Sequence to fold (460 residues):
Amino acid sequence: MFEKEERLLAEMKHETEKESMMVPDEALDSAIRSGIRAGERRGKKRYRLRAASAVVIAAAAVLLLTLWGGGSPPGPSPQLAQGPYPPLTGFDIADDITARTANRHGLIQPVNQSKSSGEYTVTVQGVLTGPQRLQVFYTIENHSGRKATVLREKLKQPDTGKELSYASSTGGDPLLEKGKWARQVNFYFEESTPIPETVTLDIAVAPYSTNTVHNEEVMEMDLKLDLETMRRFTSTVPLNQTIEVQGQTMTLKEAVLSPAGITVKANIPKENSMKVSGLFQPYIESSKEGSSAVQLGNSLTWLPGAQGDMTYFFESDALDHPDTLVLKAGGMHAVDRDDMQIVVDVKQKKVLSSPEDRIQFGDYTKSKDKYTLSLKYEERDFNHGAVSIDSLGFTDGEGKRHVFKEQEGSRSSSESTGVDGYWSTTMYLYLEPEDYPQPLTFDVSSFPGVIEQAIEVPIQ
Fold:
């Protein structure tokens, strides 16, 4: 089964190996480091991801390949796909198992498009595409004699210029000395907003300054994505398994394997007596005879929406055909529903109530285009997750519902508090600029609370 496809892949890889000998291996002044690393909690500043329309938290794992049995094969292709490709060179992807594996199999699509503005040049070298994840590899050349900073990396619709809805994380130092620098950015999409065939990448760079106003240079370019090759190497594996931990349940629906990693789709029913927000420390263990087992980490998770649907993003080495893939977790995040609100009076500069009374008032600042409320929180059980605010909005003192500032939502940043290993987190909530009746009530979608129990779900 699939002998024809495997012969085709072998022939195409032979051709790309010959072509790759002609590709120059440029030595770059700086290499990318992964934006999200499992286990690097101590001694480093930690940034939780910012979503354009939803709050997200970090999570883990990996899955399967089109050429394998057990998954549903993609439909017929309307035209011949262009990949596999010659390997991408000049980027340090040794610690990125998904990109490293995809590159070895020729599945990072070359782009080689450049755009200059002022004293900066951006060159997109390649992209790695999945149904819900897009990884962009690019370089920035700073021709000026002063340090510069990357202000933003956005994806927009080419026809309307409207920003797409996604979460993002970046690898590479945002401060750029003179010279050429390699960077890598991951965009994670919700299932309801799949990646379009053409996207506009918007990168803004400015001279480094402590001022809030920047003289930015914007470089935009349209990227046409080879979705056909991605679909050929993507398969869906039905799971349909319900997990129960002390009476609380969630269902793993399916796993989708693509060159850009694995997504696992899950659902949490409303009937649970506790507020369940997903698996505790999930990852996928990949095993191959004669080799040590590999732990495939969780890079990001979309928390449960209104209907309880959620998505886990996992790293992957599935293109290397492991013998087994097993989804594992240490338990389930679950807390009492009554504790899942934060009530704040910004005029009194006080948190009136919060889960376990552990949230403190930070600051409330006003600007022309938005109001920013910051709240502080110190984790006690740092392995048990973090606080996340429901992205659907909040309620004012008169019971009226409001939404967060569009395309801003909320974000959080954390740093270690010292030798105890705990983290001090500041949450930033971006509100539309108006005078709100007090107090304000925010629903909490995730809070540290875990029912520990070993979980294993075989996938392959």
Notes: Residues 1-80 have pLDDT under 50 and may be disordered. DSSP finds three helices and 31 strands in the chain. Residues 50 and 316 are 23 Å apart (CA to CA). The first helix runs from residue 3 to 20.
